[in-house]
Specification:
Blueprint (H helix, E strand, L loop, with lengths): L4 E5 L3 E3 L4 E5 L9 E9 L15 E8 L5 E9 L6 E5 L6 E9 L8 E14 L2 E5 L3 E2 L4 E11 L5 E4 L5 E6 L6 E8 L3 E2 L3 E7 L3 E11 L28
Antiparallel strand pairs: 1-8, 2-8, 3-7, 4-6, 4-8, 5-6, 9-18, 10-17, 11-16, 12-15, 12-18, 13-17, 14-15
């Protein structure tokens, strides 16, 4: 069976005037996939992000950085089940925020799809380029997909870029003024410590604090590195001694 992996991601969205962000359901999503919606919020008096009225969303993590006016990284997840093509998320104040929705396939959803979670934050004014380090997780099951959700709080209204941690794939990455946001993932075939994961955020100017929410998605039981062994071709043998003459 296949290992857990990213199926697709929505477009990166940012807004500075409204308290609602609408995200498209990632392309190809099917029931049983795991959806993760992640938000980077700047200078908010209330950090809670409210999911669509449709039930099933749970909080995956919420971390704050107190750099300057404050910042938060907030994440929700659910097992896909007949979602509409777009979903609206809200919070109470009209502050600058950004968001993206990720869809992961081949995840074990017989119980909780999440094996373990973690997080870290740094409120210092770190000079560019900024190293953002996801803490090591200790997984309890083999063949987990470890996902690093990362946000920064640059002190200048600038452009910038992301670089993935070594060995990780970039699932999504966006850069908007004060609210950069990215997601990276890597498959771990054995249970145990995953080690830290260091990404790089490079604002064109200014310093930044940062936040990380990381977690491991359970693989479906029976997944393997080895492809199935094909059956040998069928060879017809004429076992009738008379016809064989």
């Amino acid at each position: 069976m296949a290992d857990p992996s990213l199926r697709s991601a929505s477009a990166f969205v940012d807004d500075i005037t409204n308290n609602t962000i609408t995200l498209a359901k990632p392309a190809g999503t099917v029931d049983g996939d795991v959806l993760v919606a992640v938000f980077s919020l700047d200078n908010s008096s209330d950090w809670t992000v409210n999911p669509p009225t449709r039930s099933g969303w749970s909080v995956l993590g919420a971390l704050q950085s107190s750099t300057l006016d404050g910042h938060e990284l907030y994440a929700l997840y659910k097992v896909a089940s007949g979602e509409p093509s777009t979903m609206a998320f809200t919070h109470v104040s009209n502050q600058r925020w950004s968001a993206v929705m990720l869809c992961y396939q081949n995840v074990d959803t017989s119980g909780s799809p999440i094996d373990v979670t973690g997080g870290a934050s740094d409120s210092n004014n770190n000079a560019s380029p900024i190293t953002i380090t996801g803490p090591s997780l200790t997984t309890t099951t083999a063949r987990t997909l470890v996902v690093q959700l990362m946000g920064g709080d640059p002190t200048s209204n600038t452009t910038g870029s992301w670089s993935a941690p070594s060995g990780y794939s970039t699932d999504a990455a966006g850069y908007a003024a004060f609210i950069p946001l990215a997601a990276f993932s890597k498959l771990f075939t054995s249970a145990g410590a995953t080690g830290t994961a260091a990404a790089t955020l490079t604002p064109a100017s200014g310093n930044a604090g940062w936040m990380v929410i990381n977690f491991a998605l359970k693989g479906v039981s029976g997944a393997s590195d080895f492809p199935p062994v094909p059956e040998p071709p069928f060879v017809h043998a004429n076992l009738n001694p008379i016809l064989a003459r």
